[in-house]
TrEMBL record, chain A:
Protein name, UniProt field: Putrescine transport system permease protein
Gene Ontology BP annotations: transmembrane transport
Domain ABC transmembrane type-1: 78-284
Spans traversing the lipid bilayer: 12-37, 77-101, 113-134, 164-186, 263-284
UniProtKB/TrEMBL annotation, chain B:
Signal peptide boundaries: none
Keyword Signal among record annotations: no
Homology family: Belongs to the ABC transporter superfamily. Spermidine/putrescine importer (TC 3.A.1.11.1) family.
Domain ABC transporter: 18-248
Pfam family name, one: ABC_tran
This enzyme's EC code(s): 7.6.2.11
Molecular function via GO: ABC-type polyamine transporter activity; ATP binding; ATP hydrolysis activity
UniProt protein name: Spermidine/putrescine import ATP-binding protein PotA
From TrEMBL, chain C:
Protein name: Putrescine transport system permease protein
Cell inner membrane is among the record's keywords: no
Lineage: Bacteria, Pseudomonadati, Pseudomonadota, Alphaproteobacteria, Rhodobacterales
Domain ABC transmembrane type-1, residue spans: 61-253
Recorded superkingdom: Bacteria
Keyword field contains Transmembrane helix: yes
Main location group: membrane
Cellular localization per UniProt: Cell membrane
Length: 296, 374, 271
C-alpha cells in the first residue's frame, strides 16, 4: 500500500508534466497553423463525441514535416547543429584530456583543490559564463586589445558572431563535463601498470598510447556524450556568441515559436530534434550500463 | 556429581525450538535450499558450515524473515513463521558487516530495538547498561561506531542483537572481519555469552575451525543440502562422506574395493600390494567401490616395517611441511598415491629422524580409518 | 608511480587559466568607472549602486529565489522518492517507463522541455506565472535529485535497513530512523543542485514565465542581447562571489569532517 503511494506520486508527476506535454507536442506537430488562440487546428472537441474524435484525427497530417524537408533552412540547421556539436566535442576532448591527465598525475594533496576548481564553474551561472566571452571576443574586446598591444595584429579580428566564438563558448561551458569522467577513469587506474609497461620495454609515450588511453576509454566516451548531447539542442551559446550567421536548431525552434508564432512547425522541429538525439542517448546509456557492469 | 551431557537431539522427548519441514528456496531457476528437514533445539549453539554459495546464508535469512521459503514450512516454537514479518519475530540477527547505525552512538545502537518496543525509559537504560557490561563496552557508550575498533564494533553488534532477549540469535559470519588472534579470543567470549544468556545461537560460517570451536552441533552444507549435522567430534571422527571428511581438517582418501572380513572390510587399492583393513559397521557388498579416509595424525611413520600391523605401506617422502609444533609428511606410494602423516615435534629439529627422499613405512591401526561409500 | 611532468603542469596551468580568466576579467571590469565596458577608466563601485537601485532587477531576483526555493524543495522530495523507487522498489508494471522518464529530462534539450510544458499549460488553460515556472523547474530538477540520491542509495549497505527491521522497525520507521539520516548529505546535495539549476535556468523559464513573473536570468538575457553592460558585470560578480563562497565553504566543511572522522578511526584502532 505504502509502496504504491511511493511509486505513484513521482510517477504521476512525471506522467503529467513530462510525458503528456510531450504527447501534446507530437499532436500539435501534426496540426495546421491557424490565426486563432491557440494558433493551430484542429482542437479536440470532446463535446461532439465520437464524431469529434474522428474529425480530430482526420485533420492531423504530416504536412509540417513535409514543410521541414522543403525549406532548406531546417535541414541545414539540423546538419549544422550536428556538425558544430561534433567539432565542439572533439575540441573539448582535446582541451579537457590534458587537464584531466594533469589532475590525475598531480600530488594527492592537490587533487581535492583541483577537483573543486573544475566543479566551481559548473555551479556558476551558465548564462554569465557565456556572457563573459562577449566582452573578450568583441571587436573592441579584451582579446583584440591585447593582440593589438602586442603588435601581433594591426586590425582587430572578428571573432564574436562567428562559429569560432560558438566553439569557444561550447568548449568553455562544457569543459567540466569532459574533464570529470576522464579524470575519474584515470584516477582509478593502477599506477604500477605504467611501470609494468615501461619494465616490459615501452617508452613513456608508447606506454601512454598503449595503456593510459585504452584504460580511460570509458571516461572519454562518457565525456563526449555528455558534451555532444546537450550541445545539439543548445540555444544560449549560438544566440549570444554566434550571431546571425550561425545556424543551430535550438535557435531555429526558439525563433519559430517566439518570433513567427508558428507552433505546429516549432513542434515538428522539436520532434525531429528528439529523433536525432535518440541514437546518441541510447548509445550513451548502453555505455553507462557496460561501465556499471564492469564495476560491479 | 556427573555432568549432565547436553544432547537434546538424542532425546526423543525434547521439543525442538526450530523445525525446518521440507524447506525449499529457489531464486528463479537457481535452487538455493533443496528440500531440507531438520531441527534445532533450545540453548543449542548450532553452526551452519559450508563454502560460499552453499545456501547457509539463505537458510539464516529465512529464519530472520528476509526471505520466504518457496516450499515447506519453518516453525519457531511450534508456530509457522511464514506470515510473520522480520520486525515482528522474536529472532534477532547479528550481521556480517555488523550493520551498526553510523549516525547513532554505541548506547543508542543497543537501545534501538528496545525503543521500538516502546518500553519505559528506565527499563531501556537498565537493559542497555546490562548489555554494555556483558560485552565490556561501558567505557565506549557515548562513542560513534567509527570511533571504536573492529573488535569493539563486533561486540556492539552482539550487544544490540541480544538486547531484546530474542528466543533465537542468528550470527552471520560474526568473526569474519576480525584478525586471527582476536577471532580466537572472541570465539571463547561468544561461547561464554551464549552460556550466560541461555539464548539459542545459530551461526553461519565458512571457517571450519570456528564452527568446531563454538558449536554444540555443526551442519556441513553443500549445494543447498545439509550433508551431515552432528557434534564436532563425530563430524571429525566419523564423517559420513568424502565431502565432509575432506571439508573438515586434513585427510588422505584411498580408493579401493571392499570385501567383508571379520568386524570390518579388506580394501584392495593397488595391485600387488596387500589389502588394507578397516573395522566398520557399514553394510557393503563384496567388490563395492569404497573410499578409505585416514587423518594424518593417526598415521605412524617409521623407518622399519612395523610388526603386527595389518595396515602398513612403504613409500618415499616427497614433501615436509614444518609447522613448528607438528610436521606433516607427504609420502608417495609406488602407485603415485600421496598419503599424509603427521608427527608432533617433541624433539629439536636437528635431531629429526626423516628427511626428503627417505624410504619410510606408514602404518595405522584397524580402527583409525573410516570407510566411506561416497 | 605517478609523476607530474612539465607537460602536465603546463596543461593544468593553461587549462585553469582558460576556465578562470573570463570570470576574473568580468569581476575586474565590474569595478570600471566607464560606461564603455572594455575601456578601463579607473576604479569605481558605481555600477553596484546602480544595480541596487534597479527595481526591475531586484524584483526579478526575488521571484527567482522564491521559485528556486519552492521548486527545489518539492523536487528533493519527489526526486528522493523516485530514487528510492528505482533502487529499492523492485519490479512493478511500468518500471521501464518510469526509469526512462526519470532519466530522460537529463538529456532532453531545454528548448523541447520548455516548449512542451508551455503547450501543456496553454492546453489546460493555466495562467503562466510563478506557479508554472515552479512546476516546470520541479519537473526537470527532480531528475537531477534522483540521480544524486540514487547513486548514494546504490552504495548504501542494505543490511542497515535489514538490521532496523530485525530490531522491530516498520519499513517506514526504518526509512525515517536509519536510511534518511545516512543519505542526508546526498539529499542536501540534491537540493542544492536543484536550487542552483533553478536559479540558473533561462530557456525553460522563458517558455513557462508569463507577464506577471520574470526571473533574473530572463532579465539578464534581455539586457545582454543588446551587448555587454557594466551593470550586468556587477550583477555577475555578485553571483560569482555568492556561489564561490558557498561552494568553497561547503567543501571545507566536508573536508574537515572527513579528516576528523579519519583521525578518530585511526585513534579507535589503537585502543
Amino acid at each position: 500500500m505504502r509502496r504504491a503511494v511511493l511509486i505513484l506520486v513521482p510517477y504521476l508527476w512525471l506522467l503529467a508534466l513530462f510525458l503528456v506535454p510531450f504527447i501534446i507536442v507530437l499532436k500539435i506537430s501534426l496540426s495546421d497553423i491557424a490565426l486563432a488562440i491557440p494558433p493551430y487546428t484542429p482542437t479536440l472537441d470532446l463535446s461532439e463525441g465520437w464524431a469529434g474524435i474522428k474529425a480530430f484525427f482526420g485533420a492531423l497530417d504530416f504536412e509540417n514535416f513535409w514543410f521541414l524537408t522543403t525549406d532548406d533552412l531546417y535541414w541545414k540547421a539540423y546538419l549544422s547543429s550536428v556538425q558544430i556539436a561534433i567539432i565542439a566535442t572533439l575540441l573539448t576532448l582535446l582541451v579537457g584530456y590534458p587537464i584531466a591527465y594533469g589532475m590525475a598525475n598531480a600530488p594527492d594533496h592537490w587533487r581535492p583543490t583541483l577537483m573543486l576548481l573544475v566543479i566551481l564553474p559548473f555551479w556558476t551561472s551558465f548564462l554569465i559564463r557565456v556572457y563573459s566571452w562577449m566582452g573578450i571576443l568583441s571587436n573592441e574586446g579584451y582579446l583584440n586589445q591585447f593582440l593589438l598591444w602586442t603588435g601581433l595584429i594591426s586590425e582587430p579580428l572578428t571573432i564574436l558572431n562567428t562559429p569560432i566564438a560558438v566553439y569557444i563558448g561550447i568548449v568553455y561551458t562544457y569543459l567540466p563535463f569532459m574533464i570529470l569522467p576522464i579524470y575519474a577513469a584515470l584516477e582509478r587506474m593502477d599506477g604500477s601498470l605504467l611501470e609494468a609497461a615501461e619494465d616490459l620495454g615501452c617508452s613513456r609515450l608508447s606506454a601512454f598510447w598503449l595503456v593510459t588511453i585504452p584504460l580511460s576509454r570509458n571516461g572519454i566516451i562518457a565525456g563526449c556524450f555528455l558534451v555532444f548531447i546537450p550541445t545539439i539542442g543548445e540555444f544560449v551559446i549560438p544566440s549570444l556568441l554566434g550571431g546571425s550567421q550561425t545556424l543551430m536548431i535550438g535557435k531555429v525552434l526558439w525563433e519559430e515559436f517566439f518570433n513567427n508564432r508558428d507552433w505546429p512547425v516549432a513542434s515538428a522541429v522539436a520532434v525531429i530534434l528528439l529523433l536525432i538525439l535518440i541514437i546518441p542517448i541510447i548509445l550513451f546509456q548502453r555505455n553507462e550500463q557496460k561501465n556499471r557492469e564492469a564495476d560491479g | 556429581m556427573p555432568e549432565k551431557i547436553f544432547e537434546p537431539w538424542n532425546d526423543p522427548d525434547a521439543k525442538p525450538l526450530i523445525q525446518f519441514k521440507g524447506v525449499t528456496k529457489r531464486f528463479g531457476d537457481f535452487t538455493a535450499i533443496d528440500n531440507q528437514t531438520f531441527d534445532i533445539y533450545e540453548r543449542e549453539f548450532f553452526a551452519l558450515l559450508g563454502p560460499s554459495g552453499c545456501g547457509k546464508t539463505t537458510m539464516m535469512r529465512m529464519l530472520a524473515g528476509f526471505e520466504k521459503p518457496t516450499e515447506g514450512t519453518i516453525l519457531l516454537a511450534g508456530q509457522d513463521m511464514a506470515p510473520i514479518p522480520p520486525n515482528k519475530r522474536a529472532v534477532n540477527m547479528m550481521f556480517q558487516s555488523y550493520a551498526l547505525f553510523p549516525h547513532l552512538s554505541v548506547w543508542e545502537n543497543i537501545a534501538f530495538g528496545l525503543k521500538r518496543d516502546g518500553r519505559p525509559k528506565d527499563e531501556i537504560a537498565a537493559r542497555v547498561s546490562e548489555m554494555l557490561k556483558l560485552t565490556r563496552l561501558e567505557k565506549f557508550a557515548k562513542r560513534k561506531p567509527h570511533q571504536i575498533s573492529g573488535g569493539q564494533r563486533q561486540r556492539v553488534a552482539l550487544a544490540r542483537s541480544l538486547a531484546k532477549a530474542p528466543k533465537l540469535l542468528l550470527l552471520d559470519e560474526p568473526l569474519g572481519a576480525l584478525d586471527a588472534k582476536l577471532r580466537q579470543a572472541t570465539q571463547f567470549e561468544l561461547m561464554d555469552i551464549q552460556e550466560k544468556t541461555g539464548t539459542t545461537f545459530v551461526i553461519v560460517t565458512h571457517d571450519q575451525e570456528e564452527a568446531m570451536t563454538v558449536a554444540s552441533r555443526v551442519a556441513v552444507m553443500d549445494d543447498g543440502k545439509i550433508v551431515q549435522a552432528d557434534t564436532p567430534a563425530r563430524i571429525y571422527e566419523s564423517p559420513n562422506s568424502v565431502y565432509v571428511a575432506d571439508f573438515i581438517g586434513d585427510v588422505t582418501i584411498i580408493e579401493g574395493t571392499a570385501r567383508r572380513s571379520g568386524d570390518g572390510y579388506e580394501i584392495s587399492h593397488t595391485e600387488g600390494l596387500p589389502a588394507l583393513y578397516a573395522v566398520s559397521d557399514a553394510q557393503l557388498s563384496d567388490g563395492q567401490r569404497v573410499f578409505l579416509a585416514i587423518r594424518p595424525e593417526k598415521v605412524e611413520i617409521t623407518a622399519d616395517k612395523p610388526e603386527n600391523k595389518r595396515n602398513a605401506l612403504r613409500g618415499k617422502i616427497i614433501d615436509i611441511a614444518y609447522l613448528g609444533n607438528i610436521s606433516t609428511y607427504h609420502v608417495a606410494l609406488p602407485s603415485g598415491q600421496i598419503v599424509k602423516a603427521q608427527t608432533a615435534n617433541t624433539r629439536r629439529l636437528s635431531r629429526r629422524s626423516f628427511t626428503w627422499e627417505d624410504e619410510v613405512w606408514l602404518s595405522w591401526t584397524d580402527t583409525a580409518a573410516v570407510l566411506l561409500e561416497h | 608511480m605517478r609523476r607530474l611532468t612539465w607537460f602536465n603542469a603546463t596543461s593544468l596551468t593553461f587549462g585553469f587559466a582558460f576556465l578562470y580568466l573570463p570570470m576574473v576579467l568580468l569581476v575586474i571590469y565590474s569595478f570600471n568607472e566607464s560606461k564603455l565596458v572594455t575601456v578601463w577608466a579607473g576604479f569605481s563601485t558605481r555600477w553596484y549602486g546602480e544595480l541596487l537601485r534597479n527595481e526591475a532587477f531586484l524584483d526579478a531576483a526575488w521571484v527567482t529565489i522564491q521559485v528556486a526555493f519552492v521548486s527545489s524543495t518539492i523536487a528533493t522530495i519527489l526526486g528522493t522518492m523516485g530514487a528510492y523507487v528505482i533502487v529499492r522498489a523492485g519490479r512493478f508494471t511500468g518500471r521501464t517507463l518510469f526509469s526512462g522518464m526519470i532519466y530522460a529530462p537529463l538529456v532532453m534539450p531545454e528548448v523541447i522541455t520548455g516548449l512542451s510544458l508551455l503547450l501543456l499549460f496553454i492546453g489546460i488553460g493555466l495562467d503562466r506565472g510563478m506557479f508554472t515556472i515552479i512546476l516546470a523547474h520541479t519537473t526537470f530538477s527532480m531528475c537531477y535529485v534522483s540521480v544524486v540520491v540514487s547513486s548514494r542509495l546504490v552504495t548504501f549497505d542494505r543490511s542497515l535497513e535489514e538490521a532496523a527491521l530485525d530490531l522491530g522497525c516498520s519499513p517506514m520507521q526504518a526509512f525515517r530512523l536509519v536510511t534518511l539520516p545516512i543519505i542526508a548529505p546526498a539529499v542536501v546535495a540534491g537540493w542544492l543542485l536543484a536550487f542552483t539549476l533553478s536559479l540558473d535556468d533561462l530557456v525553460i523559464a522563458s517558455f513557462t514565465a508569463g507577464p506577471s513573473a520574470t526571473t533574473l536570468p530572463i532579465k539578464i538575457w534581455s539586457s545582454i542581447r543588446l551587448g555587454v553592460s557594466p551593470e550586468i558585470n556587477a550583477l555577475s560578480t555578485l553571483l560569482i562571489a555568492v556561489v564561490s563562497v558557498g561552494v568553497i565553504a561547503a567543501s571545507i566543511v566536508t573536508k574537515r569532517s572527513a579528516l576528523r572522522q579519519e583521525a578518530e578511526e585511526r585513534a579507535a584502532e589503537r585502543t
